[in-house]
Amino acid sequence: MKTALVTGASSGIGAEIAKRLDSLGFNVIITARRTDRLETLANELKNPSTVIAADLSVREECLKLYEQTRDRNVSVLVNNAGFGMIGNFDETDLDKELSMIDVNCAAVHILTKLFLKDFKRKNRGFILNVASSAGLMPGGPLMATYYATKAYVVSLTRGISEELRSANSKVSISALCPGPVETEFNDVANCDFAVKGISADYCAECGLKGLFARKTIIVPDAGMKLAAGSARFAPDRLVLGVTRTMQKKKLDK
């Protein structure tokens, strides 16, 4: 039986990815901090699933999660756990930012490295790192740390992807880079999106299609794809100014 591991699966994109993997015949291992949410999701899945409560802001729990699942024949890893916050960099909470870096970057780094070694030995497997269109931009005024963490995920994924390609490996890694998605992200970040987001289900659908098509960068929203592409050619100061205006609208709502 095929097995997938999905982090941050208690709600939003992670939960929808877990449901779609289940519909594709995977036994899904779902993990997050909220056990009750995970158990509710597990009851909705058709195939046997496993619930593992873990706080991925703690590096020891990332290592423990790997040890708990390394012998489960995982062939798909989805690093979805993550969160954001908004505000001027000199005013935002340092402890929360460091926790964000641990979840958004360190946990992704640890799990990707450990499972990638296993996947390469077997010469098969897929890794989907859920990043953000923020990771494709030059920076994010009022969400500086969040944008930086997602740029890390995008850069890491691109680098590993090229290593796998040059080695003719059958292992594939992708970064899912959506724009606004209708999830609990806003509540955690304490903001409102300035534009309407896509649904978590649609995001999950696009993410898995791109993953299994072996696309390195997956941008599910056509408008966001255009914006990210345009940002590559526009002056950084202009892009940063527009980004700050958009972020400020989130605060003003």
Characterize the structure shown.
With 253 residues, the protein is α/β, with parallel strands linked by helices. The chain has one domain (3-252): Rossmann fold, CATH 3.40.50.720. The chain contains nine helices and nine strands. The strands form two sheets. A seven-stranded parallel beta sheet has the order 3-2-1-4-5-6-9, with helices on both faces. Strands 7-8 form a two-stranded parallel sheet. Helix 1 (12-23) packs across helix 7 (200-212) and helix 3 runs parallel beside helix 4 (94-122). The relative contact order is 0.13.
Question: What would the keywords be for this entry?
Answer:
single chain, 253 residues, alpha/beta, Rossmann fold, 7-stranded parallel sheet, two-stranded parallel sheet, 9 helices, 9 strands, 15% strand
Count of DSSP-assigned helices: 9
Q: Return the average pLDDT rounded to an integer.
A: 88
Q: Given the C-alpha coordinates, what overall shape results?
A: globular
Instruction: Assign the CATH topology.
Output: Rossmann fold
Just give the CATH class: Alpha Beta
Tell me the domain tally.
1
Low-confidence stretches: none
CATH architecture: 3-Layer(aba) Sandwich
Report the biggest beta sheet as strand number plus sense, adding barrel if it closes: 7 strands, parallel
Q: What is the N-to-C succession of helices and strands? A: EHEHEHEHEHEEHEHEHH
- What does the radius of gyration come to? 17 Å
Total E-strand runs: 9
Strand content: 5-15%
Structural class: alpha/beta
Distance between the termini: 47 Å
